[in-house]
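Example 3.2
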Amino acid sequence: MIKIETERLFLYPISNEDMQRVIDDEKDLEMRKAYSEMLQGCLDNPEDRVWFAAWNMELKEQPKAIVGDLCFKGITDDGMVEIGYGLKEGCCGNGYMTEAVRAITEWAIAQNKVSRVEAETDPDNLPSKRILANVGFIPTGEAGEEGPRFVLEKKIDVCGKGYRMIKLLGHGKGGYSYLADRNGQKVVLKQIHHEPCDYYSFGNKIQAEKNDYERITNAGIRVPKMLAIDEENERIVKEYVDGKTIFDMILEGTSVEQFLPQARTMALKAFNVGLNIDYFPTNFVIQDGMLWYVDYECNDYMEEWNFDNWGIRYWSRTPEFEEYLKSGTS
């Protein structure tokens, strides 16, 4: 079980059974509804339940003394989590919530799936605003159902230079890719991960990225330029190609047939140097009518994995594409 320790508190997500007990004991109808939605989120998303569960704030020196709770209200596809929090009656004025919000947001920002943490609060709730300000949240200039919204941005250093994460672009078998910003320039920042993969084995991932980039560029395949590589922290910065992916175009019902000649040209260039690239449509972006391969992954050529034998199966609403939508694996 996840347990975050602060100076005075333990923070941890409670079980589904404990959440049901909270619901049964809650007298306030709005809070009961909120806790019920959290529990349903846990049941619907067991692998991501920490982002839906209620988290207890337990005093370290008084076990089982709960002074408040927190939650994240789920997680979006682009990596945003929204924090909510509340103290038990009689527990205000001790700094517990600032301590808890700082610790849990630091934990959340450190998770690869998360690109930023947001919050909203009643415009007249000055203590809540102070908590957010003390932790480092800044106003977004937007308002939600409860009031003005605030954001705590994820920042990552690559080779000593700081980048601000805008959103999570995707999560593959090799890493997490974010749309990031540095001094007004949008880039893609990839953080290598070492999560297990049932169908693929890796050696040195960061070295593989570097080697694959060189092989692909030498083949003449159109890919974004690698701008920086931080081998110690396993991070890569590359150009951002702004456009829709082939996958998104297929999903919205747009034919991508006009881009097949460009895909086959890339496939031929790869074949000529003994390579396959990953032809899955999430790896291709259209910008000004030009097809870009935005991943760096490539492998020694095998006929069964070339474009016409494998990739083309996912470049329209085929049974394979529909199965991917259901299972999430290609």
